[in-house]
Design goal:
Elements: H1 12-23, H2 25-29, E1 33-35, E2 45-47, E3 54-59, E4 89-93, E5 103-105, E6 119-121, E7 129-133, E8 139-143, H3 145-148, E9 155-159, E10 170-176, E11 181-186, E12 189-192, H4 206-245
Parallel strand pairs: 3-7
Antiparallel strand pairs: 1-2, 2-3, 4-10, 5-6, 7-8, 8-11, 9-10, 11-12
């Protein structure tokens, strides 16, 4: 990680996710990965040997085994059934779709020459991989690019989910368990999940799950507080600089 990604408002939780995938990149992809510091608002990571191969990351709220996630209350379904399909599936917010098509909107131009959002060529559209993990990195789910770009395997729907603050439906893409690759972490070893039960995460008790949920809530709260403090420091620095210019 020789360069710092230029994202002043980047979440501490996102930073942890990127560092984890970088650490285990060779085991997951067969090649080392690093931060995508060439494109601050592009996909999260790139392959060290070929930066045109990119990896977009998402950390879920499942606290252990995503595919066998247990609902937190009677009104909730497990994470794998969020889109109301009758089979297990992993999801991606469709606002990330620009990473997987030939042209994409330049959402955050550093020096916008006009008020509208220009389109740019995306040479990595047919190489970008999507990865979703549980919150504590017990499990890593990889959706290959060829699956994402296959209309027979990519399911699209509008849905309002519980963590959507404005309660408005969002556009989601979903993929079946059998069309993805699942890796489970056992200590420092990352093992691909197969039909062999020894490759699956062992069950945990309700008490362990409740502990993990409480720990997740605490870590999210602490991360938000750190980000709030950072924002205050940046605002104070901007104010100081503006005063010095006068």
């Amino acid at each position: 990680m020789s360069k710092k990604r230029n994202l002043p408002n980047e979440s501490y939780l996102d930073i942890e996710l990127k560092e984890f995938i970088i650490k285990y990149g060779k085991q997951l992809f067969g090649f080392e990965v690093r931060l995508n510091y060439e494109e601050p608002y592009g996909a999260d990571l790139v392959a060290v040997h070929d930066p045109s191969i990119k990896i977009e990351l998402e950390r879920s709220g499942a606290v252990y085994d995503f595919w066998n996630d247990v609902p937190q209350d009677d009104n909730e379904k497990g994470y794998q059934y969020k889109m109301d399909y009758d089979f297990k599936h992993v999801n991606m917010e469709i606002d990330r779709k620009g990473h997987f098509f030939q042209k994409r909107h330049l959402k955050y131009p550093e020096k916008p020459e006009c008020s509208w959002n220009p389109m740019i060529d995306n040479p990595s559209y047919d190489k970008t991989i999507f990865v979703r993990t549980d919150f504590f990195f017990h499990q890593i789910i990889i959706v290959p690019n060829e699956v994402i770009r296959d209309p027979e395997k990519t399911l699209l729907c509008w849905k309002s989910v519980r963590n959507n603050k404005n309660k408005k439906p969002e556009h989601w893409a979903s993929w079946r368990y059998e069309d993805t690759f699942t890796f489970n972490r056992f200590g420092d070893n990352i093992i691909r999940e197969t039909e062999d039960p020894s490759t699956h995460l062992p069950p945990i008790s309700d008490e362990e799950r409740k502990f993990l949920i409480k720990r997740m809530i605490k870590e999210k709260r602490e991360a938000k507080e750190k980000e709030r403090q950072d924002n205050l420091k940046r605002a104070a620095e901007v104010y100081r600089q503006s005063k010095n210019k006068k």
